[in-house]
């Protein structure tokens, strides 16, 4: 086969989708730490307003902020979270920032979480999506049991940033098992730019390729995350993920 014949026998590449100009297509950020002074997120109302103004400039229309709930560190209750939400909303109203702000929580799967699921009314995102995270060191022994109990109680288990759990990096099939058990996945946007390291980026890209992501969230704690969000708009995997019709705009 000659050079020209070989050249013209190759299939043309499909054109790539244009990069996103902003996050208006995502619409809603559903994982952040914007209520001041109750976890490791923003510290003051003024900082909250600054971060939310940044979200608006990036094209977001709605934010669902999700403070940590951890028995050993952040003993937040619905009352603490919702009272904090009211203070931030009041400040947003004064500043006339056109973003809808709601609140849920990011629950840590610790020794009391299962009891909370069974006995308390937990803060959820949208239609009972229950955002939870697990240890970065080892998967909990009762993980599948807890997912089962969440489903039994009418919640929709939503695992925060699955790409950030290193013990799954060489066991990718575990992600499929979690999905089969009824868990949904929320990817951290900034994982796509390597913010959490090369391992998290690689797994994030594979999850996008295999269409495993249900939601995408910033997990914003401060200005550094806003800067990384801006950078992520140059990532083709973000464009690809948004094209897969993730569920953010439905909540």
Structure description:
The chain is 37% helix and 13% strand. With 251 residues, the chain is α/β, with parallel strands linked by helices. The chain is globular, with a radius of gyration of 20 Å. The N and C termini lie far apart (56 Å).
Task: List unreliable stretches of 5+ residues.
Answer: none
Distance between the termini: 56 Å
Fraction of residues in helices? 25-40%
Please state the structural category: alpha/beta
Number of alpha- plus pi-helical segments:
9
**SS elements, strand count:** 9
How much of the sequence is in beta strands? 5-15%
Describe the largest sheet: 6 strands, parallel
Please list the strands of the largest sheet in the order they lie side by side: 3-5-6-7-8-9
Sequence of secondary-structure elements:
HEHEEHEEHEHEHEHEHH
Global geometry: globular
The Cα radius of gyration reads 20 Å
Estimate the mean pLDDT confidence.
94
């Amino acid at each position: 086969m000659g050079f020209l014949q070989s050249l013209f026998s190759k299939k043309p590449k499909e054109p790539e989708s244009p990069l996103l100009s902003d996050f208006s297509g995502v619409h809603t950020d559903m994982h952040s730490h914007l209520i001041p002074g109750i976890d490791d997120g923003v510290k003051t109302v003024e900082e909250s307003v600054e971060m939310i103004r940044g979200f608006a400039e990036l094209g977001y229309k709605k934010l669902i902020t999700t403070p940590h709930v951890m028995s050993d560190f952040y003993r937040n209750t619905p009352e603490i979270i919702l009272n904090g939400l009211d203070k931030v909303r009041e400040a947003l109203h004064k500043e006339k920032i056109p973003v809808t702000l709601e609140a849920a929580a990011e629950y840590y799967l610790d020794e009391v979480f299962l009891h909370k699921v069974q006995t308390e009314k937990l803060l959820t995102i949208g239609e009972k999506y229950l955002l939870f995270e697990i240890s970065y060191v080892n998967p909990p022994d009762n993980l599948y049991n807890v997912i089962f109990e969440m489903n039994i109680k009418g919640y929709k288990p939503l695992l925060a940033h699955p790409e950030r759990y290193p013990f799954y990096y060489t066991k990718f099939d575990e992600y499929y098992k979690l999905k089969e058990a009824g868990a949904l996945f929320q990817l951290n946007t900034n994982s796509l730019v390597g913010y959490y390291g090369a391992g998290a980026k690689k797994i994030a890209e594979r999850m996008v390729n295999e269409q495993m992501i249900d939601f995408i969230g910033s997990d914003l704690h401060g200005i550094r995350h806003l800067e990384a969000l801006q950078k992520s708009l140059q990532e083709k995997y973000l464009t690809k993920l948004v094209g897969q019709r993730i569920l953010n705009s439905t909540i």
